Task: structure prediction
Amino acid sequence: PNFTNSLYNLKPENYPRIILIFAIVLRLAFCLVNDNANDNHWEFAYLINIAPQFPAFNYCHECFQPPVFYWIIAKFGKLINFYSLEQIRILMQCFSFVAGVFLCFIIYKWHSSIKLPDKYKNISLSFWLFNSSLLSLNCTATNDTLLIALVSGSLLYFYKYVNTGKSSHLVLSVLLAVMAPIVKGSGLAVLPLVIWILIIFGYFLSRSRLKLTARQSGMRAANKFVLAIMLIAIAYLSITIVCSNSGNVTALLSP
Result:
């Protein structure tokens, strides 16, 4: 069913879609009027555009951050002729809004798959989508919204993998987990979690569902672990080469 038509069809089963629509509209309204942020993230992107190389980690307030997110903002800004600090701030705020919409859909998908009475699911969905702290982040020039969306997406697809056993869900979970620390260093916290749970669940799922021996299950779990490590290595190396003239991987690993 069409989301827009849900507004004119107020049946209980359509309440989650209506909550989602209002949450997105509210974020859009705040994004259009907000002109403030807790930290000056856009200065880093601005400096990337005017400098031949990435600034030193202590050159500005947020220059210690992994540069990929800021590099994308800077290059996209250059593409549409956004060069001033205020223009870069607005562009970054719009990126944060888009990531916030992505996050809203992830939360919506989570609640669609939870086995609870509809009343409690709607209350929980409303709590998360209209949470004031999360809502303000989604309308602010920051990399936090994208980090939260990537980590949430990684956990969502891992949950789907546990329930379905589909390899595509597993690959998406690992890819999103790999992207999280590239956006912000604190995203490194999710990588060990995903990898270790990957090994444990891969072992027990293969034994219970495929009726494999302990040795066969161990080999499947090890293969998934190697796949995860390879994806991490490829992601870090490729993005570092693209974004850094020096190809220095330590810039991406800064906290």
Notes: Confidence is low (pLDDT under 50) at residues 242-255. The first helix runs from residue 3 to 6.
